[in-house]
Amino acid sequence: MQAFAYQTPASVADAVRALGQEDAKLLAGGQSLLPSMKLGLAAPSALVDLTGIAELKGIKVDATSVTIGAGTTHAEVAASAAVQQAIPGLADLAANIGDRQVRNRGTIGGSLANNDPAACYPAAVLGLGATVHTNKRKIAADDFFVAIYTTALEDDEIITAVSFPIPQASGWQKFKQAASRFSLVGVFVSKGPAGTRVAVTGAGANGVFRASDLEAKLAANWSAAALAGAKVSADGLNSDLHGSAAYRAALIPVLAGRAVGG
């Protein structure tokens, strides 16, 4: 790992200014960036550490939404009684990300900005029709995820919070890869203000996506029975040593049914 400058801004505005340095990278939990640097896959000239910015942390719940600061850790989301009551599926998802170290260091903002194709949080954001807040604008979930490791964020844009509409029902199921604990396939389902949504992570070659055929079935009948015998095309799905595209396609409706039933 080569030398780099290290900055600890006290505000989002300070972080934006520091990010203006050539090849500077934001550091949130560091659970993806630091291993990449150790392997020589990333070599930023400067790290801008967001962990000391108080305005990026915290959870607020009102009658219609749950808003989570970008610097809030997975463990904090999982442990929040307010999140557990308002969106149980979201709390369950956060509680099963990685291991204890990852959950206590990793942040929701860092996960979304990185947009790993097998990460859990993108499925919750897309599956609940959430809104990503930045220092410049608000981005709807359907517009945020572009491709693997690619989002709609601009170079000088920092995620500040994510707001989730409170659904009538939600659920999460994850078939994890045993070593990494990433999703081989993960499915988040919800029924609420954003409609009936089914978001899939870990399976798509272009990252997280919505399963529209399953959404239509659940919109007509919100039950696990509505997905009995449902099929998902293997076209455009990942195939690797952990599972073929056909295997992942078979898992998606099964996990969606469990998420609804659970």
Describe the protein in words.
The protein is an alpha+beta fold and 262 residues long. It has two domains: 5-53, Uridine Diphospho-n-acetylenolpyruvylglucosamine Reductase, domain 2 (2-Layer Sandwich); 57-261, 2-Layer Sandwich (Uridine Diphospho-n-acetylenolpyruvylglucosamine Reductase, domain 3). The chain is built from eleven helices and 14 strands. It has helices at 12-19, 33-38, 74-79, 81-86, 88-95, 100-105, 108-114, 121-128, 141-144, 212-220, 245-261; strands at residues 5-7, 24-27, 46-49, 59-61, 65-69, 131-134, 138-140, 145-147, 150-151, 159-165, 169-176, 183-192, 195-201, 209-210. Strands 4-5-10-6-7 form a five-stranded antiparallel β-sheet. Strands 11-12-13-14 form a four-stranded antiparallel β-sheet, with helices on both faces. Strands 1-3-2 form a three-stranded parallel β-sheet, covered by helices on one side. It starts with a strand and ends with a helix. The model has no long low-confidence stretch (mean pLDDT 93).
